[in-house]
C-alpha cells in the first residue's frame, strides 16, 4: 500500500506567531520597560 507524500510547508501561509517568536528577546524587555514606566507614572500621579 502506497502512502501519499507529505505536503511541504512551502505552500502553507506563514503563521503569525511563528513570525513573532524570533523578536521576543527584543519585544519583551521593551514592553516591560514601558509597563514599569507607566506604573511608576501612575503611582507618582496618584501620590
UniProtKB/TrEMBL annotation:
Keywords: Membrane, Transmembrane, Transmembrane helix
TM ranges: 20-45
Source taxon at top rank: Bacteria
Protein name: Uncharacterized protein
Amino acid at each position: 500500500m502506497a502512502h501519499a507524500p507529505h505536503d511541504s510547508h512551502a505552500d502553507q501561509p506563514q503563521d503569525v506567531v511563528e513570525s513573532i517568536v524570533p523578536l521576543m528577546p527584543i519585544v519583551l524587555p521593551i514592553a516591560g520597560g514601558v509597563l514599569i514606566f507607566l506604573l511608576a507614572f501612575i503611582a507618582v500621579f496618584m501620590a
